[in-house]
Specification:
globular; Macrophage Migration Inhibitory Factor; 23% strand; 4 strands
Length: 128
């Protein structure tokens, strides 16, 4: 039940965004066992002045192609699963979209099942 916000540089086009969304979703299915039909993503393009980042923070050499992926998901994955997830995203985006692994930033935010409503004003996962 992850919810993703994926930010890409402007001008890449719809096919690029679809490829990025597919690559990230496939990484979730493979590495953190998200069901294949559990897909909720917001993909947005941003002009250079709207994507601000340090090009060398923590020794990572970022370019103008930098992509930001913010994942909100239920708590419960192990550190090893999270590391496998990050690696799978970077690998998929490199292989499918031609992105350098240095240009893929992932942020995870975890919460509890009560923090989700998938419609009807109900907390489906919390048993209401």
């Amino acid at each position: 039940m992850p919810f993703l916000r994926i930010s890409v540089p402007a001008g890449k086009g719809a096919e690029f965004k679809k490829t990025v969304g597919d690559a990230v979703h496939d990484a979730m299915v493979a590495s953190i066992h998200v069901p294949a039909d559990d897909r909720f993503q917001v993909l947005s393009e941003h002009r250079p002045e709207e994507l601000l980042y340090d090009r060398g923070y923590l020794g990572v050499d970022r370019s103008d192609a930098c992509v930001f992926i913010h994942v909100t998901m239920k708590r419960g994955r192990t550190p090893d699963q999270k590391k496998a997830f990050y690696a799978a995203i970077a690998r998929n985006l490199h292989d499918r979209a031609g992105l350098r692994k240095q240009d893929v930033m992932v942020i995870l935010s975890e919460n509890e099942v009560i923090d989700w409503s998938f419609g009807n004003g109900e907390a489906q996962l919390a048993g209401t």
